[in-house]
Design brief:
With 115 residues, this protein is mainly α. Helix content is 27%, strand content 0%. The protein contains two helices and no strands. The longest helix has 27 residues. The protein is elongated, with a radius of gyration of 55 Å.
């Protein structure tokens, strides 16, 4: 079985649809490039852009207020230095220590009110 391969010299013809698409693309390119050339030729008349006028603002400015002064924080006066007490008593002399088996003292009786 042999396969017949077409040589590159053999040309295929285009169908009617393909010719129509090709013609449409060529016309579209012609229109685009013609408009580009005409735009470039007519825009060369004014190489420098003309400045436009800036319109005035439409708001009414309010009068400026006087600025509020910045208040610095004030700190309360520090009390004068006083002499500090030096601890002479130790904890053991203020709080009695109990040895195991020592009975606690009875609480003091509640005060009675007399009318």
């Amino acid at each position: 079985m042999t396969f017949h391969r077409k040589s590159p010299m053999e040309h295929q013809t285009l169908s009617g649809k393909q010719w129509a698409v090709l013609l449409g693309v060529i016309l579209l390119n012609l229109i685009i490039f013609a408009s580009l050339v005409s735009y470039l030729l007519t825009s060369g008349e004014s190489p420098t852009p003309t400045p436009t006028r800036t319109p005035p603002p439409t708001f009414t400015p309010t009068p400026s207020r006087t600025p509020t002064p910045i208040l610095m924080p004030t700190y309360p006066p520090t009390p004068p230095a006083t002499a500090t007490a030096t601890p002479t008593d130790t904890v053991e002399s203020v709080v009695p220590t109990l040895s195991p088996g020592t009975p606690l003292s009875s609480p003091s009786p509640a005060p009675t009110l007399t009318p």
